[in-house]
Design the sequence.
């Protein structure tokens, strides 16, 4: 019998629980698996999954209650069924909402705390915080903090997340938000997630100061965690943000930029924060250095894969889908993975970029050359390569709903370019 833990059994969402329990992969005459349930089922208990030959589905029925584990769940007691006839190739697209369901309570607590800990002393900062936090962000980074926190806490035998875990999630979101405010100023962006940006509403001066204050506030909370290793880790991220912006600004329209240069810049601007988030979560679970290092590498590889996918979408999605003009990075001279790959086969592309698109229609021609030169295809391969590495980094974690959700996060990213 295979034992595993899952927090949420409200299915019709994703294949997380099927992956965890192994249903559909092994032939059991009766009992397929046993999944620990939670407070949502009236004080805890087990669900016994029984294989039925007709219809190839698993049926979950409550059995004898037992002690509630770390993996606490939500929802009302009910009998649920899985349809195993659906193969992975035809499964429903992964939803971030469903993916983060196993840490929904943690994210709700974070949302409740964010506004109260940012800018409480200044009405302008409160308005700026409400504008950016209320714009419907995905909370991906704190979601990763909580998923890794709970996955690694199981290794350490922790029954619940610590105050440090929760504060880390808040710090990470504040740092990310501060970087968005500054990015919008640098990029002169008017909209963010369908809303006017802070600098559009309050002016550039207030936006810069609001971003600075949020960085400072995050640093103050970070120092109060009194963990030198995590303080060094997160402080490096803030330095990396600046290094990434400088590196990007100094290489605009430079057709000799290498793939290594691009990956380093992408690490500074995106993957550094994700890697620090996942490693910091593992550190606060007090697991061994081998696991914390794997969590760092997982965050780094996932962050790089996300950035490559974002750069692909800049060429494959419409302006309406992107919320900005297609090819906007190329237009600004920011050469991303699809462009770097296409430059190897399209000499005309170099001419257009080095002319800084001075001729009418040259940007549209450049976008088409990126597509024709195989830049998008090779960038997709790069994104998948980093995703594969991220999945390997997760192998040190015990099988659970949390590890499955982390694996699904990797696949969710790739689905954006399928």
Sequence:
């Amino acid at each position: 019998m295979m034992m595993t833990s899952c927090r949420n059994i409200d299915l019709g969402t994703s294949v997380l629980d099927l992956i965890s329990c192994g249903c559909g992969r092994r032939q059991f005459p009766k009992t397929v698996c046993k999944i620990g349930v939670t407070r949502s089922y009236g004080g805890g208990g087990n669900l016994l999954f029984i294989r039925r030959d007709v219809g190839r589905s698993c049926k979950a029925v409550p059995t004898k209650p037992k002690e509630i584990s770390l993996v606490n769940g939500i929802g009302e007691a009910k009998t649920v069924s899985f349809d195993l006839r659906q193969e992975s190739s035809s499964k429903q697209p992964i939803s971030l909402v469903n993916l983060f369901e196993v840490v929904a309570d943690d994210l709700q607590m974070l949302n409740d705390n964010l506004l109260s800990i940012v800018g409480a002393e200044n009405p302008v900062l409160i308005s700026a915080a409400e504008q950016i936090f209320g714009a419907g962000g995905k909370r991906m980074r704190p979601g990763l903090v909580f998923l890794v926190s709970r996955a690694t806490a199981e290794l350490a035998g922790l029954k619940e997340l610590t105050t440090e875990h929760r504060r880390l999630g808040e710090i990470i979101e504040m740092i990310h938000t501060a970087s968005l405010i500054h990015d919008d100023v640098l990029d002169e962006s008017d909209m963010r997630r369908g809303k006017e940006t802070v600098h559009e509403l309050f002016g550039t001066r207030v936006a810069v100061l609001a971003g600075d204050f949020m960085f400072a506030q995050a640093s103050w909370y970070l120092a109060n965690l009194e963990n030198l290793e995590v303080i060094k880790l997160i402080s490096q991220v803030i330095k990396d943000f600046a290094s990434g912006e400088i590196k990007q600004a100094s290489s605009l329209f430079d057709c000799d930029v290498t793939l290594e240069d691009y990956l380093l810049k992408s690490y500074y601007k995106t993957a550094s924060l994700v890697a620090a988030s996942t490693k910091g979560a593992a550190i606060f679970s007090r697991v061994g250095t081998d696991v914390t290092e794997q969590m760092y590498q997982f965050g780094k590889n996932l962050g790089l894969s996300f950035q490559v996918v974002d750069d692909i979408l800049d060429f494959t999605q419409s302006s309406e889908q992107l919320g900005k003009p297609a090819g906007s990075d190329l237009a600004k001279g920011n050469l991303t993975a699809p462009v770097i790959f296409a430059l190897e086969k399209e000499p005309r592309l170099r001419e257009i970029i080095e002319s800084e698109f001075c001729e009418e229609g040259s940007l549209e021609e450049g976008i088409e050359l990126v597509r024709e030169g195989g830049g998008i295809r090779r960038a997709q391969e790069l994104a998948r390569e980093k995703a594969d590495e991220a999945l390997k980094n997760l192998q040190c974690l015990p099988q659970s709903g949390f590890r499955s959700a982390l694996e699904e996060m990797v696949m969710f990213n790739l689905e954006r370019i399928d």
Remarks:
- Residues 4 and 35 are 5 Å apart (CA to CA).
- The radius of gyration is 23 Å.
- Residues 289-316 form the longest helix (28 residues).
- The chain is about 60% helix and 5% strand.
